[in-house]
Every structure is written in structure tokens, then in C-alpha cells.
Amino acid sequence: MSTLPLSGLRVLDLSRLLPGPYATLVLADLGATVVKVEEPDGGDYVRQMPPERDGVGALFYGLNRNKRSLTLNLKSPEGRDALKRLVRDYDVLVESFRPGVMDKLGVGEAVLRAENPRLIYCAISGYGQTGPDRLKAGHDLNYVARAGLVGYGGEAGGPPSLPGVQMGDIGGGSLFALVGILAALYERERTGLGRLVDVSMTDGATAFLHMHLAARLFMGEQGGALQRGREALNGGYACYGLYRTADDRWLAVGALEPKFFSGVLERLGRLDLLEDAYAPGDAGLRVKAELTRLFSEHPMAHWKERFAGSDLCVESVAEGDEVLDDAQLRARGLFAEAEDARLGRKVTHLLTPLRMGPTPVRAPPTLGEHSREVLAEAGFTEEELKRLGL
After folding, report:
1. With bands split at pLDDT 50, 70 and 90, how would you rate the model's confidence at 67?
2. Average pLDDT of the residues of the chain
3. Per residue in 49-72, is it b (16+ CB within 10 Å) or e — as a string?
4. Rounded to an integer, what distance in angstroms lies between the CA atom of residue 263 and that of residue 246?
5. DSSP three-state, residue 389
6. CA-to-CA distance for 206 and 320, rounded, in angstroms?
7. Which of 44, 140, 169, 198 does the annotation list as catalytic?
8. Is the pLDDT assigned to residue 310 strictly greater than 80?
9. Strand 10-13, strand 33-38: pairing
10. What is the reported pTM?
């Protein structure tokens, strides 16, 4: 069996909920040894979040395969000392507390990197480790609202659009944490030293607007403020948008280039619309209104047949469980079925997208399942384990 690219990398994951655990799930799927450090009383909050099946939280299950669980009470001297001793043998630590919490506990970045100068300390927070709002509470919706993503989505003249997924948590948090960790590992090969990776989910969320905000900054006074529903890629162009069909389904038309959009219009028998397709103002709106009318005349099945075999950037909007049966995603191996001995049944796992070898599929750990094992590997004696309540 080929070795996964991160085999040998050792990670301590003190994070909770979604951003940190998803980042470390990717690391684990790529071969890293990930130890999830949890509070003895309850552990990661997502363990108790519904929905549940067989007494196991589905959200926790989906985020924590291929990890081990160690319980430590970091409010106790014994727990703090145990963490300081553990980090000597680990490459990366990930935490998602508010800025300053780890310092108050006595195990902040400076303390832990004094124990292990090679340690890469990744802190994921809503607004980052610096700035006037660094201690402010928030969740994904707050971060993407602050970053301008919410205000950019929705119909022109209408309300902003509530994102259906956690772009701030995953895109702004998890993925930039991964980039920072991997960059720091590469740097460590040259310097021999780790570093702090400061990940702000609000900062990261602004990356989704990079092209638009960067263009706005370049234009300066000659440009205008970004507008909801009126820009090229958020509803302003007829060739790039969502259209309702007669059976209340939706088509995603992304035929941005004229070569694609002319093909769409040709299949609709309306090449006459191409002249004003990219026109600003009322002319472009008339094209969009006409497409809205045309697509609403027939059900989805009709449009799938009409565009079958075409290469025109038209897709049906997947609803409900349809994504689970997508032939392309299945062919890419995005879903893997594995037996879970503890549950006594097979479970289908959604694998992380970047796979660079045979992805291990081990069930998530029960709370504290590997505490003795992990600490024994670090040289803790039986007497020391007993003092930690193990």
C-alpha cells in the first residue's frame, strides 16, 4: 500500500464544532496522526448536537473519523502539564478558542512553543488574534455578513441572501488553516522552527469576493460600489443565473462566454437575444426576463433533454439527496462505505475532496477512548495516568 503524503505528521486538535475539526479531518484523511484533545465532561459540543442515530451524533461522526480522542482537563495543573509534555512530540496544534483563552489557561502559543520550538500553532477564530473585535462572539453567518458575502447575494432590489452552507467556517476557516499549516511545515524544513498561524474566518471569507473587491479597489473613484444582484456574476447578466422551470425546479445557466451563451440561445431558438445579452440597464434586463419566461414554460425533464450532450454550461440544480447519486461524484470516489463494528452496520462516509492515496476510514472515537494509549506513547507512567484520573 502506498504511503499517504502526511504519514508521520502528528497533530493535536483542541478545536470544536466545524472549522478546526474539518481542517484536521483533511489532515487525517491524508495520513496524519490526529489526536482530538477534549474536555472530560462532554467533550466537543458537536457530540451532542442532533441528529442522532444509535446514540451517536451524525455531525460529530462526519467530522471526526480517523482521529483518536484524549480527555484532558486544561483547568487543572495536571492537565496543563500533560499538554505541555505532549507537544514535545507533536508537529501541529490546532485550537479554536477566543483569543487569549489558551494564555489564561497557561498553555498559550509562547508556552507551548517554548516546550517545542518546532511546533506549528494554528489558532482559528472569528476575527483573528488582533484588532478591536478580536474578542467578539460570532458564528459563520456573522463572519460572512461582515465580509460582504451576504450583502452581495440576492436579487437586485431585494433582501440579501442567507447562505445555505458555512462558507466562513469551511472556506474562511478550515481551508486557510490548512494552507497556513502546510506553508509553515514547508518553512520549518528550512528554518527548523514552527510558527503561529493566525486564521480569521472573517478575513478568509473576504477571499470569496477577491476578484470583485480587487477590481473595485483598482478602479478607485472611477468605479462604483458593489451592488447586490447587478454585477456580472451575482445576477446582473442573463447568461449567468438561475431560472425556474415549469415544475418548480431550477436550472443553473453559467454560459458566461458568448460562444456558450450563443449555443444556449440557439437551442432556445432565440439567437436574436444575443445582441443585448451583455448590455447594461433595461436592455440586459429584458433579455433576462425573456429567458425567465422561456424556461418557465417547460419542466426540468424537457430542458435536460433539450441540453443533453451539449457543452454549454447548463446544469440542473441538485435538490435533496440527488447529489448522493451524482455519477461524476461517484466516479471520483467521493463516497466510501465502511463497516463500523461498534454500530454493527455499514456507514457511508463523505470523503474530503483531496485524496492522494487510499484514504483510511476509521470510525470516530468515543470520548476519551484513546487517553491512556496516547499518554502511554508519550512516556506517561501508570502512576501518572492515575493522577490524571485515567
Report:
1. very high
2. 95
3. eeeeeeebbebbbbbbbbbbbbbb
4. 22
5. coil
6. 29
7. 169
8. yes
9. parallel
10. 0.94
